[in-house]
Every structure is written in structure tokens, then in C-alpha cells.
Amino acid sequence: MLGLNQKDTKFLLIVVALTLLTPFLTQPFAESSGLAQFNAGYPDLMQRFAIYGIFAIGFNILFGLTGYLSFGHAAFLGVGSYSAVWMMKLLTTNVIPGIILAIVVSGLFALLIGYVSLRRSGIYFSILTLALAQMSFNLAYSVLTPITNGETGLQLTLNDPRILGVTATPDGSIPATHLFGLEMKSSAQWEVFGHLFTFNVGYYFCAVMAIIAFYLSLRIFRSPFGMMLRAVKTNQTRMSYTGLNARPYTLAAFVISGMYAGLAGGLLASMDPLAGAERMQWTASGEVVIMTILGGAGTLMGPVLGAGFIKYFENIFSKINDGVLHGWFAFLPDGLEDFVVFLIHPFVGKGWHLTLGLLFMLVVTFLPGGLMEGGNRISRWYKNRRNKGTDTDEGTPHAPKSTPHVAE
Prior knowledge:
The protein is mainly alpha-helical. Helices cover 64% and strands 5% of the residues. The chain crosses the membrane at residues 50-69, 74-92, 98-116, 123-144, 201-221, 248-268, 288-313, 325-345, 351-371.
């Protein structure tokens, strides 16, 4: 099915089901519950799960397959956002043309950056990408202000010379971004047993884009091209001894990865038509690196899990303030309540980065393969326990295993 074997087809169908059911999965607690603080089923956060999942999937094609660590991928995210907003200002607020332009411009920009930076490898490549990305950030922030609107950011206005569609709605406001008439901000809500589920047009559009992006990455991973990228990561020197030039493959991976980042930037602009230079900062590039490593570099689902994990912490844990903590521990005596809040306070709210950093350290230390390695360990433990139970029930004798050969 779709060029995939049976195992990959089942995997893709599971991903599709989980993506489409996200409004249910991210709303486990009733609105009246004290744990409703941890619900993530609102449109803006669900959109970011999908968008930054795409960003991380693209980065994983470069880093996970070739081993080239880029610290400048946020430049393509920003370029994609600027391109999409300009298309909405000049042509139409329909999101499709803006997203197409974002992918094309980001791909061309990645071709330029990759052609320069891939002349080096290792830490030198990483530093080059970081330097070029910071140059792009400074250009967008201060030099190219007629194009980027500098510090304020580029956004839609009532004076935009839009060719298709209206420049203003009948009530005098800026027209919303849409998909052939379906507004991205449109939502429908369904309340069931105290759970309020929100179905947002923008999220499902991003979800479909994420599914397509995941499918393409799956095809790349399973293709001969993907095998060549793995060969580059394994031993590029040995590969060159066979007469193969690795640079065209790494450049292609870099461009594809940049186009993924451009798609993510275009989707960000489609959900909220605003593009700012802060999306091109080195911190945004570092964030996608952490997403990929945290989830599991080189795996298919790992970057998506890492992106969801970090965006969840950023949006949920950052909102837990002292008032929320006092509400949770109000049952304690006053002195003890204040003490507990004092202990937890540095790890939530503005200090959520501290909690994320500690979790990242634990994952890297005990699960070098990321969250996917943890899932694999649990799966193997469960299978081994089930197999032992089956052997015991059937009365299978437990003979000692033969000593494996040294070469095994």
C-alpha cells in the first residue's frame, strides 16, 4: 500500500489514527477536575504539536540519517514564515499558495547554505550553519527591515495590495487565513461527561500536512537514497574509497530538511499570519536539536515525540504559577503548604526550563536512544515476561542455553 510493506503500512495507519484522534487523547481530564491544568486539547497547542513535529521530522532526515548536526535550521523556519506572509499580503489569504512559496524559497535558501557549509564536516559544519543562521537573523532583524519589518515583525494589514480576495472584511477587520473558504481559526466543540473536546480546522489541516510529511520521511528512510545517507553517517571515508561522492547526497538531505522547515514555517504563518526574526534565532535551532535527541535521533517517531514533549512542557508547565500550586496543596497546614510551594516553585512557571533540562539530562544519561529507546525497552520487557509465562503454562523445560560463539 502506497509503496510500503505490510509492517510500515500498519505503522503509518497507527500514526494517522493517533494524529486524527489527538483532540481526544490530549483531553484526558474533565474541565471541573483539578488536573484539567494538564489538558492540552486546545487549538494553538495542538497545531504546534503538528507543526514542530514536521520541523523535527525534517531535521531528523539530516541529523538522524547523515549525522550532520546543524545549528542553523531555524533560518529556514523563519524564511518559510516570511515567504508565506508575503504571499498572503500580495496574492491571497488562502494558505495553499503561501505554503508552496514557503517550501520553494526555503529549499533554495537551504541549497545556498548547504553548498557553503557542507564543504566542512563535524563541528566545523555545525559552527558554519550557526554562523550563517545568525547572519540571517541579524539581516531580518535590522538590515532587511523593508522586507521583514524588523523588530515589529511582518503581518497582514488593511493596506495590503492583495490581488485575490478582499483587503478587509465588511466589518473593517483583516481577513482571516483560510483553506478555500474554511477559516483556520474555526472550531467546533463537543462536551461529553465533563470533557470539552475542540475540533479546529487549522489543527486538522496541520495534521494532514504532518501525516504527508511523515509518509515522505518513511519512504526516504526505506529508499536506496536513505541507505546512502546511512552509509555517510556510518563511515564516509570508507564510502569515498569505493568511488562514491557523498556530497551530493548530503546536500540533497540538507535541502530536503530545509524544505521541511520551510513547510513548518509556512504553517506557523498560516495559523497566525505573523513572521518575526525571533523564529530565526539560535535558540530555535537548538530547540529542534533537543526535540530530535530527546525523542530518538534516527528513528521515525522519535522526533515527533520529542517535539510534542517539549511543546507540552512549554505551554502547560509554564502556566503553573504560585496560585495554582496553592490551590493544589490547600489541604496542607499553612506552614507546610507554603514550604511545598516554595520547593516546587523553581521548577514550574518561568522555571519550566529547569524541569525540562533535568528530564533531558535523565533521558540522555539512562536512555541514549531517547524516548523511543525507553518504549522499546518496555516492549521487550513485556514480550519476555509474556513468553516466560507461556513457557511455564505449557510446561516447557528450561534447558540452559548453549554458549554463543565469540563472533556472535
